[in-house]
Amino acid sequence: MPYSNILEELVNSTPHSIGAILVDWEGEAVQEYCHCTPYDIRFMAAHQAILLNHLKELSIRMESEEAVRDFSISTDQAHLIIGCIDDDYSLMMSVDRRCPLHLALYRFRNTVAELRREI
Questions:
Q1: CATH number for the domain formed by residue range(s) 2-118
Q2: What's the pLDDT score for residue 32?
Q3: DSSP one-letter string for 60-96
C-alpha cells in the first residue's frame, strides 16, 4: 500500500518523529507508521478527529473565507500536527519537542500534498 511507504518516509525523515497516522472522517485509522505502540497513536488520532471537526465547524460559523488547513499543538514534551488531506481524510503526526516545529511542518505539508495526489 503506497500510504505506508509515504508515512514511513515522513517519520524516518523527520528528526525525533514519534509517528504519523492517516485517519478517516470518524477518526478511524487507515494506516499508521510509528516508533511507539500502534494503540497510542490510534488513540491520539481518534481524538484529533474531534478537534479537527470542531475547528472546521467554528470556521464555518465564523464565516471565514479560509478553510482550516492544519494546526499544531505543543506540549512540554511533543508537538502534535494535524492537517486536512480532503473532506474525508486527515493526517496526524507526533514529534518529540526536540524537533524544530518549522521543520516538522514543512515535511508534514509536503506529505499532505503527496497524499492528496494518491487519494
A1: 3.30.450.30
A2: 96
A3: HHTT-SS---EEEEE-SSEEEEEEESSSSEEEEEEEE
